Amino acid sequence: MSAGPKYEYRWADGVQIKKPIEVSAPKYVEYLMDWIEAQLDDESIFPQKLGSPFPPNFKEVVKTIFKRLFRVYAHIYHSHFQKIVSLKEEAHLNTCFKHFILFTCEFGLIDKKELAPLQELIETIIPY
């Protein structure tokens, strides 16, 4: 999966796929959604009992989730934006992305270097 000529994203979950592998965008998204679901369902990461503590690495897990979700946005904007425009759906994508990026910036969930593929767009949302 890519986000323009400079950015290629490979998949690794650290468990079943330890060494990053090259996959198509649909396969990357499939792996990602399955992986996120497993993280959300894991009570040692996202406890469901009231008063149960979150693990010490909770923020790192959430940061990884958001970093990988950002990669999907980067791919969509670089590879499919014209199709989205032709469907007159860009306002929806832009609104979702704006909420996503404002949330991630508010809580410091994605390192600035990871945002590089969409930096110009992000600067229209959040001028630095």
Structural class: mainly alpha
Overall shape: it is: globular
Strand composition percent: under 5%
Q: Unreliable stretches, pLDDT < 50, 5 or more residues? A: none
Order of helices and strands: HHHH
Number of strands: 0
User: What is the CATH class designation?
Assistant: Mainly Alpha
Distance between the termini: 28 Å
Pfam families: Mob1_phocein
Task: Offer a few descriptive terms.
128 residues; mainly alpha; Butyryl-CoA Dehydrogenase, subunit A, domain 3; 55% helix; globular
Short description:
By secondary structure, the protein is mainly α.
Topology, please?
Blueprint: H1 25-41, H2 58-86, H3 90-107, H4 119-125
How would you describe this structure to a colleague?
- The chain has 128 residues and is mostly helical.
- It has one domain (25-125): Butyryl-CoA Dehydrogenase, subunit A, domain 3 (Up-down Bundle).
- The protein has helices at residues 25-41, 58-86, 90-107, 119-125.
- It is globular and about 45 Å long.
- It starts with 24 loop residues before the first helix and ends with a helix.
- The mean pLDDT is 95.
